[in-house]
TrEMBL record:
It comes from Deinococcus rufus. Pfam families: GFO_IDH_MocA, GFO_IDH_MocA_C3. It comes from the Bacteria. Residues 145-266 form the GFO/IDH/MocA-like oxidoreductase domain. This is Gfo/Idh/MocA family protein. Residues 17-130 form the Gfo/Idh/MocA-like oxidoreductase N-terminal domain. Signal peptide: none annotated.
């Protein structure tokens, strides 16, 4: 499924109108970000519990936004340009198809869907309708991963050969995650997998994954995983992760080593990614120049949720393709689901989408 550039849909003389569906915890981050985006108006709030929608309406002073429990009814009444889908993954498919049936685009919370089949159906439906359809992968819009990607793409470290990520944290969430199956892979690893795709610019081919729940884990299932992905271009991506690692935590962005034919990039997920680039060869070890990565280009896409929402507004006004368009982001979901299949079967699994 190839992303198709969209034609402009919203004229410059009126705001882009959005309805947010799913007024739980994540919706606050979306509404905070939306409030900073010029030319955007939230005209509706939908939740199965109308009290949750009313609470968000009051909290964010969206006094003119319509609230309700029925997405069909609110879409018919408000005639928006975009749905912000903050529902649970199981509801993403129904939400997207409802929006598309009203001629409304969708910017959705990750993951794209709860199964690959539903994700494929959503992508095909959005493309058939010619509507905006993208996923919030907010970590792509971290300014430091943008610096890493720009340096890798610039070629000073040669061709990328390997991408390696460590993710070790010990969050005590409580709630649904404590009993969730494949909790690390399904709830968190998609961020790291999607970041790996961004960094190396390659697509997944196959994966071998081992998942386990170590002694002392406060989760019921699968808090640890290691995975090896074969990518296009001969690149190998390795992932080591734990959500019950006490002590010496990584950042939420993971700890990265990207190797190339002429150097290496190290990034601990913080503000100071570094590179070591070959300057001389012929000895037992090559000679290197170590450096901090250059600053961002002025036009780099950053800003987390705000940046992604801003880009959605831009595409609706000017046309084009969102970076996290669903037809591309389905590859990150496919990585997660293939890793789970490999962990369950003990076999190497092809990554298909």
């Amino acid at each position: 499924m190839t992303a198709r550039p969209l034609s402009p849909r919203v004229p410059a003389d009126r705001p882009v109108r959005a309805v947010l569906v799913g007024c739980g915890g994540m919706s606050a981050a979306w509404l905070r970000a939306a409030a900073t985006v010029p030319g955007l108006e939230v005209v509706g709030l939908v939740d199965l519990n109308e009290g949750a929608a009313l609470a968000r309406q009051s909290e964010f002073e969206l006094l003119h936004a319509q609230t309700g429990t029925d997405l069909d009814a609110v879409l018919a009444a408000t005639r928006p340009d975009l749905v912000f889908d903050c529902t649970i993954p199981d509801a993403h498919h129904a939400t997207a198809l409802t929006a598309f049936s009203h001629g409304v685009g969708v910017l959705g919370e990750k993951p794209l869907a709860d199964t690959l089949e539903r994700a494929q159906d959503m992508v095909q439906a959005g493309q058939h309708a010619g509507l905006f359809h993208a996923v919030i992968q907010n970590r792509r819009y971290d300014p430091n991963i943008r610096r890493v990607r720009a340096f890798v793409e610039g070629g000073r470290m040669g061709a990328v050969t390997g991408v390696h990520a460590d993710f070790f944290l010990g969050p005590h969430f409580g709630g649904f995650r404590d009993t969730m199956e494949h909790v690390l892979l399904l709830d968190m690893a998609i961020h790291t997998f999607d970041a790996a795709r961004l960094i190396c610019g390659q697509d997944p081919v196959s994966v071998t994954c081992h998942e386990w729940n170590p002694a002392g884990s406060w989760y019921a299932h699968g808090a640890n995983a290691v995975a090896t992905f074969e990518m296009t271009g001969g690149v190998v991506f390795t992932y080591r992760g734990s959500w019950c690692a006490e002590g010496f935590p990584t950042t939420w962005e993971s700890d990265w080593r990207i190797t190339g034919t002429r150097g290496t990039v190290r990034w601990d997920g913080g503000d100071h990614p570094r590179a070591a680039v070959v300057t001389g060869t012929g000895g037992f070890f090559s000679e290197f120049e170590e450096m901090e990565l250059p600053p961002l280009a002025p036009d780099a896409r950053t800003g987390g949720h705000e940046g992604l929402i801003r880009d959605a507004v831009r595409v609706l006004r000017e046309g084009g393709t969102a970076e996290t368009v669903a037809s591309d982001n389905i590859k990150s979901l496919a990585m997660v689901l293939a890793a789970i299949e490999s962990a369950e079967s003990g076999q190497k699994v092809s990554v298909t989408w």
